[in-house]
């Protein structure tokens, strides 16, 4: 794998860009692999990379039914943060943050991880107190966190509504300076290229249609490109986990729901941070290309259609203007939907399964992107050793039976309310 | 916007309704003491790709809970009926 | 009019009697009513209009519609500043001040055009391969510069002063597109008896007919059918309205512009967002002409042939005097002919070796020179084209020109038809994509379906209109419209294999994506069209690649040696053209966004010094300003008043539910964790409901009004959820229970009188009602009337004092409130707010929102004894799960500050004394107050059950204030644990 660098760009510029190699090979499936990862999204590709990088397991295939990165890794609003409250979540997402901080160098692919800082506005003293609770937990776990007062928020984000007529006046905010955004597609491509560099086969347009069993044990997968044997199979198909899980015989506490995302026309720099509205469902950042990227709440009914409804578009627009009045004049360029695995506690499921040979990584709800590196790292460990990585000990499937749920919002077991 | 044909109020935008999830689940009897039955009812979901029977309540209309049969791929609604089959 | 005016002396659809003054980059110019900004700029001979995204190349006007990639301008200043508007879609208005964008210091001299020199290094995706060192945070340095270079126009930061409107509309047949097919469809559907909405993005109906000569048959046909349509009462003609998205349920998103030119409409909303619910839809959205790909094909002066024809015939602008028309199909010949007739010197370069003989004959008649098998090899001119080199199979020639018209064929405008997930399908005979298999309620007609000939479009439109109306059950017989045969066939375009050359050959003009970029993406394995789009940014501009999409995938297909269908198309997403976010929000801005709720006593609070606090959309008195200078002083004073005399509190926000029926008691027994079946008539009981998963859902008080009738109150926050849950259980789980539940929240005003003097005051205020301890003991009900309104007095206490909740018909709420205050004044009665209420309940150890946080169980909150050994209630089984029984489960505790001069804070993390202050600790403080009764800070918390021994000291850490304070674990009931104060 030829290294990317300023020098390589210079050299290739002089040779008319003709000598660049494929970012990853167009691999043909072998009859069998030590590990087959189902799902060529961020989590699947990261898992394959860390299987090779951390565990020396290189006889690995990643099977993707469409094109690499075509699922939620390429549809999300790219926010990366580690401001979690509950024991189990806090440490996992901070580990992920640390991996993000070295990702471009580790992959030799610029994922444009931009630690521009994220703030969530507070609109009452009580809300700011509850943010302080979160900030306290973050600090006690070695994570950066600040509580801002109204003037601090105005300094950082003068374009928010500080007028006398603001519907929900800004009282303050919680701020994480290390939070930010990354170029989502680059994460998928970067992991694909780096995994490929370790010998992992990335096989696109290869849909898994079933599982091959030897007794109770899963020993391979049936695909649209034929049967592929596998020592172990890892599922990383968030959004469609139920579909494949059921083919394997798993009963899962997951519902698929649509979350919409929005982007405006490209503008000169305006929003320098990630800003989330504490009074309603709205958050926004500005991509390096200039579009304001924003999102809101789930559409709220089971769906596998990658599109949202007009009512939510309107709700998000209303919330956007309530927080940021000048956005009224800015024009929406595109909106789309992603299919989320929603779990009853809005926390993910990564674990070995009751079925021998099958490992599960799903249930990411609307928070999977920021988890990508840690998820891959821990899932690779789990597959390689057969035991859950300590950082994902809380993310087992059993927790719903035992009551050890991790419900950050306290919203209860109706997945669509999470 | 989904358009739900409320059997009481006629076709309405879905944001007049409250979603209630999978209607194919059978709630255990109120005094069913078996944890597994409640676990399955509260947590386990078929989450089908395709036809899905689901509850919706017409909160800003007649307040009836309805069973809507809707395709999760196309969002097309095949049928709507009252969840309550007979008056108490 | 200066010498560079390109306006023709006559013709067009402009009103020469109404000149319109406008400016471009500060320069005063003049156009006419009926112009677009683009046509007016062309008329004034303005060729250079914008700069491109990446290389800052000079760009001119390329199209005459919303597909415009180049001519983007900014309008307005301050809160009205609006960037990235295509000049081709802006209806010229008096005083319009347009600015070019993405250039500095000026459009003519743009420093960043130096990027062009670095172009070899700035290939597609170059940024993925560099900017990674020297440190891990290096990107933060580079990003700063990249961000500044990127982006198009600059947005304003002020609030938008204009108004928008949201409209809900319904129709039988929605027809999208007011060209020949759409007009014909609308007419057919209307004749059939359907309610029709005809939606046209332009300010004139007619579509491509507007580009025909105004003295021909097309114009006459258009005038006739438009008049006919305006005569129908069941047709709504929506010009200036874009259908931007198709959504589930037959819902169309439309955004309509206010006409800029009609002074009568001043004061009306700037834009109207319509949610149109249509029974059926006819898509007659037309087609967009494709450019050709050749070196430097982006120079100002290069224009789509159809656009040149529109400027000539509709706007009476001759965009060039010496014109080269480079084409691959028949349609653009007509532009060449019209230009020649208008006096231009025209050369047609048709890539096809043998164009149709009738075209050659017409060319000869009009003096148009023709070069067959020829393509443009080179363009000259920096800020505007001044010559081209045409390369034929054998010859090469330089031709001086001031306009180059291009046409690579047409792409049907399939965007809307694919918003619901229907993939377009490829049709070889037109070398383009048409809509895929649509649902039964959707129809297509005209160019969108590849029916390019006007005669065919009119007929197809009629058929589609009839079918669409019939789908809605409207099928009165419709007679066909007048025929309109313009003999304007579009031949199968000859696919241009592309040409090599030194200059950049652009595929996506706005995003500066070239043929070389596509080749690079292919070389690096980004072959899927989605990868291509994401890697090169192709189609990601404000035009969403309307002109680039097909050329790009044709190029990728060629590189992959694949067919066009194998290569596929990227998904089209709404909106079709960009939509102002303000339009989508309509009037739900300012205080119309999530309007707050007011209690019946709201106006009194406002008029009497209440500082209001919003709690879940309700406005509630936080504290009263005459109680103290600030909240901290006031709430303590209000607490003292309640503990020592009496206070009055507005509790109208509580949820109130009427529960009736023979099985009401059984029902309540199942929904509450504690029993209600044995509650005597006239008595009240505090109850806690669980969720199915065993977590506490809500608490409140339910009173038995009669054998079969109960009055339930819920928390303010959960009122709607509780009612809905009760209805769910009755409708779906226990239909056999004969119970009805109804919200009566808004029917009752409610106020609480609390304090040792509350009874005296009530007797004084309500003579004739016996409120003695015997008549109305703790947890009991009295029903009566006051001034003809129902009155309920419930003796309940939240504060721990003797207290009454008084409910009265909502319209009498303020009267009773002021009556009680007046009667109580001699006893020292004053109102108190929610801050004091919250503090009073902490002193009594009552849990509320901070403790009932969606993660706590009955046992966690110290309420396990309420359920006792009961079973069969909601949440009973799962509340027994192992996690909830763990010894270190966090349970409710009381906490008191033991350090002089310190205070407790909610959100502090609790640790054992002496252990390392890190991690998650063993719990937290949930609620705190200063207790005037105890003279210190006290609080409630959730703390590990196995460590929660009363008397133990713990450390409360609050890193955000760098505080660590010692606190003692005590009983959560700080005051009157026996409840003497509230019973007597």
Topology, number of strands of chain C = 48
Q: Which percent bin holds the helix content of chain C?
A: 10-25%
Largest β-sheet summary of chain B: 4 strands, antiparallel
Give the CATH level 1 class of chain B. Alpha Beta
Largest sheet of chain C: 7 strands, mixed
Overall mean pLDDT score of chain C?
A: 94
Number of helices of chain B: 1
Main structural class of chain B:
mainly beta
Give the beta-strand count of chain B.
6
Strand order of the largest sheet of chain B: 3-4-5-6
Which residues of chain B form runs of ≥5 with pLDDT under 50? Answer: none
Quick summary:
Chain A contains 11 helices and 18 strands.
Summarize the structure in words.
The complex is a heterotrimer of chains A (418), B (88) and C (984). With 418 residues, chain A is of the alpha/beta class. Chain A is built from eleven helices and 18 strands. Chain A has helices spanning 6-14, 42-55, 89-101, 103-107, 125-140, 150-156, 184-197, 241-248, 310-323, 368-385, 399-402; strands at 32-38, 60-63, 79-80, 118-122, 146-149, 172-176, 180-181, 201-203, 208-214, 217-223, 226-235, 255-266, 274-276, 283-286, 291-302, 331-342, 349-352, 358-362. In chain A, strands 1, 2, 8, 9, 10, 11, 17 and 18 form an eight-stranded mixed β-sheet that branches. Chain A has an eight-stranded mixed β-sheet with strand order 5-6-4-13-14-15-12-16, with helices on both faces. Chain A is globular and about 70 Å long. The mean pLDDT of chain A is 96. Chain B has one domain: Folate-binding superfamily (Folate-binding fold). Chain B has one helix and six strands, in the order βββαβββ. In chain B, the strands form two sheets. A four-stranded antiparallel β-sheet of chain B has the order 3-4-5-6, with no helix packed on it. A two-stranded antiparallel sheet of chain B has the order 1-2. In chain B, strand 5 (65-71) and strand 6 form a beta hairpin. Chain C folds into seven domains: 15-126, Ubiquitin-like (UB roll) (Roll); 164-287 and 412-471, 3-Layer(bba) Sandwich (FAD/NAD(P)-binding domain); 291-408, FAD/NAD(P)-binding domain (3-Layer(bba) Sandwich), CATH 3.50.50.60; 495-562, Arc Repressor Mutant, subunit A (Orthogonal Bundle), CATH 1.10.10; 602-652 and 747-839, Probable tRNA modification gtpase trme, domain 1 (Gyrase A, domain 2, 2-Layer Sandwich), CATH 3.30.1360.120; 655-743, Aminomethyltransferase beta-barrel domains (Alpha-Beta Plaits), CATH 3.30.70; 882-983, Elongation Factor Tu (Ef-tu), domain 3 (Beta Barrel). In chain C, helix 3 runs parallel beside helix 8 (454-471), helix 9 crosses helix 11 (549-560) and helix 18 crosses helix 19. Classes of the chains: A alpha/beta (418), B mainly beta (88), C alpha+beta (984). Chains A and C meet through helix 1, helix 5, helix 7, strand 12 and helix 9 of A and strand 6, helix 2, helix 9, helix 10 and strand 29 of C.
